[in-house]
Each structure stands twice: as structure tokens, then as C-alpha cells.
Amino acid sequence: MIPTIYIVDDEEATSRMFAKYLQTKGYRVVVSPSAIHFLSVFEPEQRGCIVMDERMPELSGLQALESIAKWLPIYPAILLTGYADVSLTVKVMKTGAFDVLEKPIEPDVLLAKIEEALGWALEVSERHTADVQVWSDMQTLTSREREILGMIIEGQSSRSIGNILQISARTVDNHRVHILSKMRAKSLSDLGRAVARATAIFSEPGINVTIPKRPKNK
Question: What is the DSSP string of 164-203?
């Protein structure tokens, strides 16, 4: 499906220039003269990117992004402004937007940023899909398997787990096999990373997992 690029700007000449250029690059473009109009035509189910001016009458670009924050960053947004400062940038990034760019900006520079945003959003979407699958698989585990999974992720051996639960190490090993199968994991290290991500995202209370800190953006 061809991505849809939303150009939201009250300056008609600017919108027309960007729209014409992006259309020549094969994109579907929807132009909105205001943030309010954009909110009335926005279709988040379709893949695309939002390019929005900050300073507009009635509703600012930032306010519009805050109102659709639940769709970001899976649906990337780029805010254009002629007066970028640290405070504005922080507020915009908190909505989940992809970037803030200062005006004026050349069409080819904007295109490069849009393509970067689309690629990034696709990666985010794929990771989210994988996290949802892990979460779903976790729900298939029995209470005993969930208990053992938490201990496995903590690094405890089968013998140690068996002593705590008063079962044999062989029984623990059998549970390991079933857990790996249900979770579609190739190894315990892969399983640990996948469960840690899903637990952090979905706040699963049933398994005690130490979640590593997420890396800071470079």
C-alpha cells in the first residue's frame, strides 16, 4: 500500500509545493489547511507520515499531536516550526512524534526525513507485533509454568528451582521444554529478552522479572 503523507499547514503555497514534490515521488498526499481539518480526515489505520506546521490558528501543531498521541510513534509525525527551542522540542517528542524540523526546509530534505520516519515506524510496528505475540503466548502458560519461567529468567538452575518448589530437577527440565515450546523460543536467552520486553510494555504482574533499562537515544 502506498503511504499517505499528511501535509498540515495554513500556508497554501508551502503545502502545494510539498504536495506536488511528494506526489512526483509516488506518495499519496492529503493536504489540510488547519489542524482541525486534519483531525477530521486523519486515517491512522493506513501507513503514512504526518508533516505538520506548529503555528496555526485555532489549534497548534503540538496540540493536534497531543490529541492523537495514542497513534504515535507507530504513525510517525514531523513538526515544522520557524522558532524551535528546547522546550517545544521536548513537548513534541513526549507525544511520540518522530522529529522537529526548523523552517524553511527544502523538499528533498523533508523527503529524506519522511522516508527515515516511515522506516522507523515500520520497525516499531514489527516489534510491537512481536511483543503482542509474546504476551499472547505467555497467557497459555499454566500457573506452575509461569512460576518456573520467572525463576528461569532470574537465572536459577533446575536443581535450585526444584528445591524451592519441592519437585525434582527432571520435572523442572520437562517444564522448561514445555515453556520453550509454548513461547516459540529457540533458547532461554531469547526467551528472557522477549519476556522482559513484553513484561515492561504490558506490565505483567504474574512474573517477577528484572527489566533492563532501555538504551538512550543517540
Answer: HHTS-HHHHHHHHHHHHHHTT-SSHHHHHHHHHHHHHHHT
Say how far apart CA 218 and CA 215 lie, in whole Å.
9
Query: CATH number, domain at 90?
Result: 3.40.50.2300
Residue 46 φ/ψ, nearest 5 degrees:
-95, 145
The type of residue at 99 is D
Residues 192, 86 share a domain: no
Torsion of CA 129, 131, 133, 136, to 10 degrees: -130
Single-letter amino acid, residue 87: S
Residue 144's Cβ-side half-sphere holds a number of Cα atoms within 13 Å equal to 13
Domain containing 36 equals 4-127
Residue 95 shares a structural domain with residue 191? no
Q: Looking at the structure, tell me whether residues 120 and 144 fall in a common domain.
A: no
- pTM of this structure: 0.65
Mean per-residue pLDDT pooled into runs of 10, the chain (218 residues): 94 95 97 96 92 94 92 88 84 90 94 94 80 86 91 89 94 92 85 80 49 36
Query: Which three cell numbers, joined as nine digits, stand for 25?
Result: 515521488
**Number of structural domains, the chain?**
2
